[in-house]
Specification:
The structure holds 2 protein chains of 2 kinds. Chain A has 11 helices and 12 strands. Chain A is of the alpha/beta class. Chain A has one domain: 3-Layer(aba) Sandwich (Rossmann fold). Chain A has a 6-stranded mixed sheet, sandwiched between helices. In chain A, 49% of the residues are buried. Chain B is mainly α. Chain B has a single domain, classed as ABC transporter involved in vitamin B12 uptake, BtuC (Orthogonal Bundle). Chain B has 14 helices and no strands. Classes of the chains: A alpha/beta, B mainly alpha.
């Protein structure tokens, strides 16, 4: 309910690229008094990143860029290196080679805590044994920052942003999968990131939560890179998509340019027809097995 | 959903935080009040348990075959702290009664408190670092290593003062073996660490049994058994100093890392993206925990159950945030251990039960009640 309304609001609301950034996400810019007009500051540039484990090359010289404030989809079959690439960009694993720049700054050479103030990660499914309140989970996002007395307020604001305000005091274990993902999104938001990495954030979510989660991510206006399984979801919500195949970039560009039958057949090994969703004007893919 | 086909759809980047809760009827207030209540309740619990600890110390000292009143306890403490010179006390205790309070009972009670606090803190941190709800302070082979040291001393008859030192050394050697075994390319994967601890524990237990089988007889056997099950008999002020100092220093250090510990809730991956150097943190904190456990083992033997159950019980009451769990676990563990030891030394007076037996008998039902009530409450 909550999310559907805000989704509508976001599409019919004013387009205003120069509007004040959301509280937090661009605080650094504001503090410097230099909100970049073109938003270039937070653009993500990945150059020739490779990563291998036990001699097997998983990510093989990937380069990509994501424009500041845009949502970029990372697509590809199972084992194509999506998660590994995300983990490398997040600094969770050290690449064999390559560079990752965020707004022109070298992310990989940065201290771990410094990086965590700029990059937040939402994983596909998380699990904990301990009895945590929702608010405590969101507060985890403040870990890389100095503790202040406002942490609770920031956490509540973030919960508000994802439409979960009423559940602040609930036990994490009583939440549904969709609610958990939104709490993790809120946790990522209080990290005040300039870059948001999402690893198949919509797995196991029902269709409503899939749509609302990605709509919410778009709405935030933080540079985002999301590994997605569902090509139609990517077609509907991403500004830009990158298709990985066997650790390499197979195609990249606007969804309507990249998600075409030739690419899909080559990478995913299925036949595909592309239609236009009459309501949204976005591409809709229909798959059939190859003969 | 987006409305255009060509350009990127419009984005409400400025609006995110101003968006009111969409159902409109719930504002900020109820939740704020709730949060205040929950913080206040944690503070209340901590104050309450601190009060209980003071009362427990006082009452536990009065219990025993010699008749001592609660006032006498504080009179004796006051006299030894030099408060009588300030004219606070007009009727000094007899030397005998003062000796019973100051030399016999108080050190034992304070040692019990220190050991209980140490074990509870260690258990809480262990469970977090290994992400294993069954983790306990002795997990890394600490108690079995300490036992080997202690049994060697008891059997070979090195002077009694050598026992704590030998136990401490045994615990540290076992820890070193566990960490060396668990270490993989500088990392300490939680499951691997637990399994390495198990292997070391079994090896040390076998060594202990072997030594006992080979050489223990009669009296030394009973001494060994009481140590293996935990005992606070004969605790003196130097024991108090060791364990209370360890709790104060290491406990404070661990408490100062409570945000870091919180970040482990969703595993190493999440902790690392929150800016935590997972490996360095795990190495550092495990070693701190081992030192604190070692101090407890050295003065009391291996007392089970407290480190496992107290942290769980505390989490059921105030949630998992370490800034609340660690102080409350320490206070609860301290009071719990004082009463367990009081029961151990009085129930079958003049015979003394090993305190580990009492902790298990007392703790299991309390924990079961907490667990059940919690489930019904949800």
């Amino acid at each position: 309910m909550t999310l559907r309304k805000t989704t509508v609001a976001s599409t019919t609301g004013p387009v205003d690229g120069s509007a004040a950034p959301i509280d937090g996400a661009r605080r650094r810019d504001r503090a410097n008094g230099s909100e970049p007009a073109d938003g270039r500051r937070d653009s993500l540039d990945v150059f020739d990143v490779s990563w291998s484990v036990d001699g097997a090359l998983i990510v093989d010289g990937v380069s990509l860029s994501a424009k500041a404030g845009s949502l970029t989809g990372l697509l590809g079959p199972n084992g194509s290196g999506k998660s590994s690439l995300l983990r490398t960009i997040a600094g969770m694993t050290r690449p064999d080679g390559g560079m990752v720049n965020l707004g022109g700054e070298d992310l990989l050479g940065m201290r771990r805590r410094e990086r965590a103030r700029r990059v937040a990660v939402v994983e596909q499914e998380t699990h904990t044994d301990v009895p945590l309140r929702v608010l405590d989970v969101v507060r985890l996002g403040r870990t890389p920052h100095k503790a202040t007395e406002h942490d609770d307020d920031l956490a509540r604001n973030a919960l508000n942003t994802v439409g979960m305000h009423d559940l602040a005091e609930r036990d994490w274990h009583t939440l549904s999968g969709g609610e958990r993902q939104r709490v993790h999104l809120a946790r990522a938001l209080v990290q005040e990131p300039e870059l948001l990495l999402l690893d198949e954030p919509t797995n196991h979510l029902d269709v409503h939560f899939q749509l609302s989660l990605l709509a919410k991510v778009r709405e935030l206006g933080v540079t985002s890179l999301a590994a997605l399984h569902d090509l139609n979801l990517a077609a509907s919500y991403c500004d830009h998509v990158v298709v990985l195949d066997d650790g390499r970039v197979a195609a990249a560009g606007a969804p309507e340019d990249v998600l075409v039958p030739e690419v899909i057949r080559r990478v995913f090994n299925v036949d595909c027809d592309v239609h236009i969703n009459p309501r949204t004007g976005r591409p809709v893919l229909m798959f059939t097995p190859l003969p | 959903m987006p409305a255009e086909s060509t350009a990127a759809p419009p984005r409400g980047r400025a609006r995110a935080n101003e968006t009111p809760p969409a159902n409109g009827r719930s504002g900020f207030r109820p939740a704020v009040r709730q949060a205040a209540r929950s913080t206040a309740s944690a503070a209340l619990w901590i104050t309450g348990m601190a009060g209980l600890l003071v009362v427990s110390i006082t009452l536990a000292v009065t219990i025993g075959s010699a008749d001592i009143g609660a006032l006498d306890v504080w009179r004796s403490i006051g006299a030894h702290l030099g408060l009588d010179r300030l004219g606070l006390d007009s009727s000094p205790l007899s030397t005998l009664r003062d000796g019973i309070v100051w030399e016999l009972r108080l050190p034992r009670v304070l040692t019990a408190a220190g050991v209980g606090a140490a074990l509870a803190i260690c258990g809480a941190v262990m469970q977090t670092l290994t992400r294993n709800p069954l983790a306990e302070p002795y997990l890394l082979g600490l108690s079995s290593g300490a036992s080997v040291g202690a049994v060697l001393v008891l059997v070979l008859g090195v002077g009694w003062f050598g026992l704590p030192v030998a136990a401490f050394a045994g615990a540290l050697l076992a820890l070193a073996a566990t960490l060396a075994l668990a270490n993989r390319r500088g990392e300490l994967p939680p499951t691997r660490t637990v399994l390495a601890g198990l292997a070391v524990s079994y090896l040390c237990s076998a060594a202990t049994s072997f030594i006992i089988f080979w050489s223990a007889t009669g009296d030394s056997y009973r001494g060994i058994l009481s140590w293996l099950l935990g005992s606070l008999g004969g605790a003196a002020w130097n024991d108090v100093a060791v364990v209370v100092l360890a709790v104060a220093v290491i406990g404070t250090a661990l408490l100062s890392r409570s945000r870091t510990l919180d970040a482990f809730a969703f595993g190493d991956g999440t902790a690392s993206t929150l800016g935590i150097d997972v490996n360095r943190t795990r190495w550092t904190l495990l070693i701190l925990v081992a030192l604190l456990t070692g101090a407890a083992v050295a003065v009391s033997g291996a007392i089970g159950f407290v480190g496992l159950m107290v942290p769980h019980g505390v989490r059921l009451v105030v949630g998992a945030a370490h800034r609340r769990v660690l102080p409350l676990a320490a206070l609860t563990g301290a009071s719990f251990m004082i009463w367990a030891d009081t029961i151990a030394r009085t129930l079958f007076d003049p015979r003394e039960l090993p305190v580990g037996v009492v902790t298990a008998f007392l703790g299991a039902p309390v924990f079961a009640v907490l667990l059940r009530r919690r489930r019904v409450g949800q």
